[in-house]
Amino acid sequence: MLNEREIESCYLGQFIPVHYHHNMLMDQNRMNAFQAAIAHVVRPGMKVLELGGGTGVLSYFAAQQADKVYCVEFNPDLVREARRFLAMNPNGHKVDVIHADAFDYLPPEPVDIVICEMIHVAMLREKQVAVIEAFKQRYLARFGAPLPIFMPEAVVMAVQPLQQEYSFHGFHAPIVQFQDTSVAYPGTVELAAPAVYSVLDFAEPGDGLIAWSGSFTVAQDGRLNALRFVTKNVLSIVVERGTTIDWLNHYMTLPLARPLDVVAGDVVHVAFQYRAGASIPSLQAALRATLALDEACTAQAASARTLEPA
């Protein structure tokens, strides 16, 4: 029988289907970014831990330089896949594929690098933040400081107001959409520039609560009916060049329950709050977008009611 956390994991991303991992191997943006970042960070003599190894490809990249790689995977189907694939590849013998829960596992020795790619747009669904925080506590208790270098080192998240087309052959359906960042979608109109709402530094403590309240000045007339969420993973900081090696997730576009008709110059206030690893509907339920004029009128009416004689 699965315990409560294992059941939750099945729903929230820990046990995503094997074929999804195969599709990730074909994602050139992801593969290129991680290969470059791992080649930059991992040096001969290092020991590397990967939490949530999937097919083992990131551990394979690390094994080309590292002396030893511990690859932890909870899904038994993927454990078999990773072991099979690594046996076919150069330096695959350096990788120890371990069937264990990343929430609980500690390597038998200190490591230099920890790779963890349990990443979803806006840090939803998958347990990246919780896994890293739990690992840091266990690692410090067992081995003491310093902590290893984490990959990604940080995540930068932004939000952007949109007018989004939701007609599918005449069928109106406001759905969650994931869009390739390199493609211009004719049904998507950007109503304002994106605003950064959170920066997570995995070397620093974090409780997983993500909350934001901010305003946008609308750039063109339209119907604000969706918010785009942008997630940039800073895989490695290249100090000597003053640059970073990044991986940008697909955009996630969430429909608003109450669309707003806006004109250029309008100020729209947006607010939301959610926990890293939570479901997409939990964020949708928290989304609020209001015109500044409406807020001012509401405040004025409330003030007037307060001043009315009893």
Automatic annotation (TrEMBL):
Protein's GO biological process: methylation
Keyword Transferase annotated: yes
Gene3D superfamilies: Vaccinia Virus protein VP39 (3.40.50.150)
Keyword line: Methyltransferase, Transferase
Protein name: Methyltransferase domain-containing protein
Keyword Transferase: yes
A Pfam short name: Methyltransf_25
GO MF, any single term: methyltransferase activity
InterPro entries, per the entry: Arg_MeTrfase (IPR025799), Methyltransf_25 (IPR041698), SAM-dependent_MTases_sf (IPR029063)
Ranges where the Methyltransferase domain occurs: 48-133
Residues annotated as transmembrane: none
SUPFAM superfamilies: S-adenosyl-L-methionine-dependent methyltransferases
Organism listed in the record: Massilia jejuensis
